[in-house]
Amino acid sequence: MSVRRALALAACGLAGGSVLLSAVVVGKQPARGGGDSEPRPGGSAVPSAVPPSLLLLPPTASCPPTAGWIERPAGSGSYWDSNWDRREPLALINLKKKNEETGEEELASRLDHCKAKATRHIFLIRHSQYHLDGRADKDRTLTPLGREQAELTGRRLASLGLKFDQIIHSSMTRATETTEIISKHLPGVKKISTDLLREGAPIEPDPPVSHWKPEAVYYEDGARIEAAFRNFIHRADAKQEEDSYEIFVCHANVIRYIVCRALQFPPEGWLRLSLNNGSITHLVIRPNGRVALRTLGDTGFMPPDKITRT
Question: I need a labelling partner for 309 at 20 to 30 A (CA). Which of 126, 140, 184, 249 fits?
Answer without folding.
Answer: 184
